[in-house]
Amino acid sequence: MVSPFETDLKWETFLKYGKRQFVKGKSVIYYQGSLGDGFYYLHKGLVKIVTSTVKGKDRLLNIVVPGQLLGIQTMDRQTHFTTAIAVKDSVVYHFSCEQFAKLMKERPELLPLFAQTVNQKMRILLYAINMKALSSEEQIAALLLNICDEFKNYEVPLTQQDLAHCTGLTRITVYKILKQWKEDGLIDIEQRKFVIKRPDVLRKLNLSAPTAKTV
Length: 215
Known about the structure:
Layout: E1 19-23, E2 28-30, E3 39-44, E4 47-52, E5 58-64, E6 69-70, E7 83-86, E8 90-95, H1 97-106, H2 110-131, H3 136-151, E9 155-156, H4 160-167, H5 171-183, E10 187-190, E11 193-196, H6 199-205
Antiparallel strand pairs: 1-8, 2-7, 3-6, 3-8, 4-5, 4-7, 9-11, 10-11
Keywords: Activator, DNA-binding, Transcription, Transcription regulation
Domain Cyclic nucleotide-binding: 1-71
GO molecular function, one term: DNA binding
């Protein structure tokens, strides 16, 4: 299956159809339950997708990296069933349903890609359910490896605080795990990024989680 980050189509070409928005870190892009009208393209930054449980707690579903779409499930102008929060200062482009229609006239081959994206979101929901059954180490390994797959290299542009925000784990828990991994030679910690030196070992930790791509 072709995914949005594996296609030869370059979204940068179509930004003229969208409305540029700067989103400060920790700010909400759209809320669960709000009415949707179109989708977003992440140009810069990092966004986490969460859903609120019946107990009022946020549950991480997805991490969106630059070059990917979010909020696409409300192209039918229904309400969002998730909340999108900028992990760090981000730039997004919003494409309204009307703008999407214009885009389809120019590049109709994008339509199957959108259908595939919606299908992948169903797989992400299953992945998120399994994530909560994992240990803290397994959750961090899964998140780092997932983002590695998106960027197609083993340098992850996140900080320890970003990892804590994205997983919902405490900063102390994240710090202890990463410190141990660094001592074991699994990762290297550089300024505002992690270098995965032993992805094979991290993947063994992640064997209990199904493979899923972020969109």
